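Title: Comparing notes on inverse folding

I've been comparing how different people in this forum approach sequence design from structure. To keep things fair, I'm posting one structure and asking everyone to reply with a full sequence. Here's the target:
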């Protein structure tokens, strides 16, 4: 568990560094477009979405110093290998860290994306879009990691996409139970005369 707390600590650090710039950028953009108080929750949602992406990218695509890299550069193209490796680590070694980091961590990192994209953007409410966004963000991360001497794993693609799907299902549940909550996070559509 200390490794997970280290990841979260580093993510929060990156978010806190980037947050003032992000807030200023969104305020300037909001001022140029005109101030609508009703869009306040939408703007907070966008800030949170971008903060999640900053935290995610800080741990996945920002190059790490050589001394901080705890693993050897590898590319895994064998589908579902993570299941076998995680199972073996738990059964034969009693070692749960791969399960928490490689399995649950990859799913959990993308749950907010699967929830926030349809919450904020009407076009993302249609089923395949949030999962596809999760898949393509994950694919981008895996491709960027290759030249950085970091591990790149095909299993991360389906685990991250599964996380986006879980987030999307959570969104659908919230939308069904609390439709007004979901409506207030949508951007105001311009009215035509």
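Reply #1:
Here's my take.
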């Amino acid at each position: 568990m200390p490794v997970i707390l280290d990841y979260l600590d580093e993510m929060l650090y990156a978010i806190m560094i980037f947050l003032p710039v992000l807030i200023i950028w969104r305020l300037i953009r909001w001022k140029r477009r005109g101030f609508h108080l009703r869009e306040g929750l939408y703007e907070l949602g966008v800030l949170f979405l971008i903060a999640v992406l900053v935290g995610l990218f800080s741990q996945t695509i920002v190059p790490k110093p050589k001394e901080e890299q705890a693993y050897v550069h590898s590319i895994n193209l064998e589908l579902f290998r993570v299941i076998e490796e995680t199972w073996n680590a738990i059964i034969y070694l009693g070692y749960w860290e791969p399960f928490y980091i490689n399995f649950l961590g990859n799913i959990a990192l993308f749950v907010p994306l699967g929830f926030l994209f349809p919450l904020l953007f009407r076009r993302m409410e249609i089923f395949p879009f949030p999962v596809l966004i999760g898949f393509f963000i994950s694919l981008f991360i895996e491709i960027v990691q290759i030249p950085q001497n970091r591990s790149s794993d095909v299993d991360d693609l389906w685990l991250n996409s599964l996380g986006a799907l879980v987030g999307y299902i959570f969104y659908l549940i919230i939308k069904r139970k609390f439709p007004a909550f979901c409506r207030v996070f949508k951007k105001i559509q311009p009215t035509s005369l």
